[in-house]
Amino acid sequence: MAVPRVAIVGRPNVGKSSIFNWLDGRRLAIVDDRAGVTRDRLVTLIEHDGHYFELIDTGGMGHLDSDNLTKDVEQQITAGIEEADLILFVVDTKAGLTSLDEFVAERLHKVEKPVLLLANKTDHAGLDNSALDFHRLGRGWLIPVSVLQNRNRQELFDEILARLPDYENEEGTGDAPHMKLAIVGRRNVGKSTFVNSLAQAQRVIVSEVPGTTRDSVDVHFNLDGHRFVAIDTPGLRRTKSIRTDIDFYGLHRAQRSVRRSDVTLLFFDCMEAISKVDKQLAHYIEQNSKPCIFVVNKWDKVADTVPTERWVRYLREHFPTMAYCPIAFITGQTGKNMKALLNHAQMLFKQAQTRVSTPKINKLLRAALQKQQPPLYLNRRPKVYFGSQIAITPPTIIMMANMPQGFPPSYRRYLINVFRDHLPFGEVPIRLFIDKRESQTPEERKKNAKLAEMGEQAEDEFGPQDNYPGN
User: Fold this and answer.
1) Does 298 count as an annotated binding residue?
2) What is the pTM of this model?
């Protein structure tokens, strides 16, 4: 996919991440008054007036990182500049020209690419003369902008599109990815190493320092002719341990990444015990009905001494309500078993998009009700009239009954397990709704009788009723 790229660069605290969010129209990057918040380069696909380009946010040049990651941050900045077709050099009108601005300009003089000089925080026309001082940097076409006042956004888009390569005739421009994978887990379980292995590049910073990743980073990669997005997320801490804005926004970015994803990979470190953070993450994934794979990483360290069955039992004991989730054992650093993991993720993606006909659902539902009737409610037996699948991703089934409140959680779980065992949704969440219907009209009885007859005549992919589990 040939999409031009635009990189945002500048010294710390000039509003690079604010401009990134402003142009995208969403709060993607963390914005904080402290310098050095952005470390990895963030990428988002921008569409404007039918044109597409990738926008890249980078860390602040010249900042000494508090966790001794300055070299890694600089490598991310360099990579962003090298892959870009256009540079947005951001300065701060209110702060004026600084020595760090001159340092950035000197570095960009060595880059043979077009540059737009964005004088940010030029909140009104009265500050335009102050912005003119940045002409002394000698690099880039000057545009006064203000994120706060939404000033000159359209002009900026016009200048960007005017300077980008023409990829209009390239096939596939703007195509959506085949699948989005959210990689989540607590700190230092190997998420970023896994993402770099997928991208086959040092796409995000990897360090033993807990909390190295602060934003959710979209990384595009290709597999078997399909385009994917892996979303690397910040490592999470227990809620009571969140003490800074960075941790707070990191938590919300990770949660939003789960919501955006088609499949979520929940990472565990095979050398560490399951923690409360792991359980909180799993609960959030389950709440959002996302297909999930439990990924046990760094398996090469214990492969010769710990059988996989032990970890399988361990996970099932701690996450009994997610027993449908498959489990993968990988080594992210070497890439071992990663192809099999991605193939399995695609299987879950397809399962979540599967539709099953109403006759098949009703035939299976009748068998389940005959095998185990719902318990009495107010001395009456609840009746089920029919069921139907009403949505995909996740598969969602609605049942019409006379007394929805008469189906306790245990019986609802029984029905979901029946659907999971006999429909092609074996490894993904299933949502079940029970709606109230007092009685059936003659026309509805006739229609449902016809559906039942169709179900009897349909190809029975679940086997005869005599083979139903428990018979």
Assistant:
1) yes
2) 0.61
